[in-house]
Structure formats: C-alpha cells, structure tokens
Amino acid sequence: MLTGYDAKTCLFFGSVGKLDMPSVPEAPTKEQVRQACTLVMDDMLGDFPFESDSDRAHTLALFLLPFARELIDGSTPLHLIGKPKAGTGASLMVEVLAMSFLGRAPDMKAPPIRNEEWGKVITACLREAPPFMVIDNLREEVDSAALASALTSNTITDRLLGTSELVRLPVRCVWVATGNNPTLSAEITRRCVRIQINAKVERPQDRSEFRHQDLRGWVREHRGPLIAAALTILRAWIVAGRPRYDGPLLGSYEPWSRVMGGILQHAEVGGFLQDRDRLYEGTDRETETARLLIHSWINHPYLNQRKVSTQQLLDLVMANNVPVQVGGFNDHNANVRLGKYLGGLIDQRFTFQTENGPLTVEFKKDRPSGGSARWRLDTIEGQLPSSDKLRSVDDDPPF
After folding, report:
1. Is there a contact between 195 and 97 (Cβ–Cβ < 8 Å)?
2. Which pLDDT value is given to residue 149?
C-alpha cells in the first residue's frame, strides 16, 4: 500500500493495491508536457467524438481539476457533458476521467424528478465529502436555486431531512453532469462549461473500432502513468512561475478560470472557454424563449417601434408559438402570467444579427400613473426594421 500525508495541504493519500507510479520531473520540459497531454487526450480519450477543440480543452481541464483543486481559492463550475443520443459515451467518459484520481469509478446520482428536490440531494451527497458530484442522465429541464447556489458557494447551510438540525458543509467537489441534449435555466447555464460529444451515427452504441476494447481496464492498468501525466502538466506550470492566463474568464469562477486556463495555456492546449455561445444554443431554453419573443416583436411590421400592452404581446406569443407557460387564448389568467414573465425581462439586453449588422435592444417597462403597463424595446445598437418614431399603441388602430 502506498500512502502519504502532506502537512502543508492537510491531504492524505492512500492507495490500496499495486500502483506503478512513474517519477514526475522536477522541471518538466515542453516535450514531457506534450507527451503527458498525448497520453490523456489521445491514448485515453482519443475515441470520444468531441465536437470542437474547446470540448477537448474542457475535458482535459476536468481530468486535471481534482489534482489541482487545492490551487483554486473558490468555486468550480458544472462540467456539462452533452450528446444528441444515448450510447455516445458520456457516462463512460466520466468514469475513466475520475478513475485515475479515485482508483475507481465515481458514484453516479440520478437527477431529482422535481427541481425542488435538488437541495435535499445536494445536502445528502455533500455530507459524504465526495471528490466528485456526478449527476448522470439529465432528463427534465434543470432550474434549481439550490443547485445554482451550491455551484457558486464555498459552503452550504441546510436543515437535515426530518430534523431541525442545521449543517454547514464545505463545497469542494468536482461537479459533472451528463445528458442527451440537456436543457437548463439561464442561472444554471452560466455556471457550466460545455463538453459536447457527437458520434454522428444512428446507433452510437454499435460502434466497435476503438483503441481499447476495455477502456476501464486500460485505465486501471495505466493509472500510475495517468497520475504522473496530470502532475507533470501541473508541475510544469508551477515551476514556470504560474504564468498569467490571458484568455477569457468565466464569471463567478475567475480563480478557476485563471488556474485551469493558465495550466492549459502553458501546456499549449487551445480552446479553453471558447465557444461559450454554443453552450447557450439549445441548452438555455429560458433565454431562447425570451429571444424568440423579442425576435417576433422586432419583426412585426406594426408593433416593432411601439409601446405595447401585455395583451398585444400575449397575441404575439400565441401567434408565433413562443413557449411561454401562460395557458391558452381563453385562459383569463394568461395575461397575468405573461405580465409576471415579462417583468423578469426588464433591463435585459438581446443582440441579433441582421442584414445591416448587429442589433441590440433592451427590454423596458413604462409605469404610467393610471392604466395598464406598456412594454417597449430601446435600441442600444443598430436600427429596428422600421424608422417610425416610438409611439403609444393608444394612438394607433387596434392590433
């Protein structure tokens, strides 16, 4: 058994069974770092069908994160592994990525059926201080305040189920989720990094041409070299003086961005935190719905330059099949529900590409002293299709 205690970090390492651990260079060369990256990304993960360099970079960052976690003073984002069809290999990817660090596959949790149950699941899991928090096979849209809070907190406080006892739990785990074309709220989406895989075949599970027919067995056999590869990549950045990362940062995760971005930048691995827009496409249904509503409004020949009523926007929602949960035409509460929804869009900005260049508008609400509210779009950049002066619908013919 190989064991060890590091007094500086208060970490204890214990490995049951044989572990052939190669030595880690004191000052890794560029060639040694390149070989370490090749072992991980080509030899171990080369058969996973990544869609872009960004997806590959985020996967390497996920592999390195448990080894580098104590270098990061702050929270880490949710690594969202998405794919269009079951059988593409997302769950297997999580297993082999975690196996090098844990020596076994991580515990997988099914997502709660209802969003209000996320808090209970998170508290129960964090009581075990897991190195990994893996939510496997997301099905329903995820819109959980508890999950959003945990993803940006160093600790959480919650009441134990069935008791009045409050517990305060540290949040130091690596967050991972998998799903077939998962959909998330805007609050969860902005806390994610994207890893997209796509086999581009009808039955991904039927593929057979792989480097390793038993990838789990290969990882177990090569666990020592994989650990050494991770430590080589990390040590190269540290002994170089932790060169400053000069790429994009993820809001609320700046320490994570600088550490992981710096490590990958020093290893000459490109794509980190690129393609952020692609994460929102098809994932953030909340934002897509709002954009569809605004797009319909902008392109309406009568309403696009006018202050409009909630009823007129309700007509627009129904006519364009905008998926806002308001009920039907004859539902007398639909107007109220839409008004509440529109209130959540106030001061939000939306940018669209047009033939005349980018168009950015800001959603606004007028609060008249009497009568019902009026909604409008303020142009921040570009020009709306019509150049008419902004007018109130009260002075115009009915919709």
Report:
1. no
2. 95
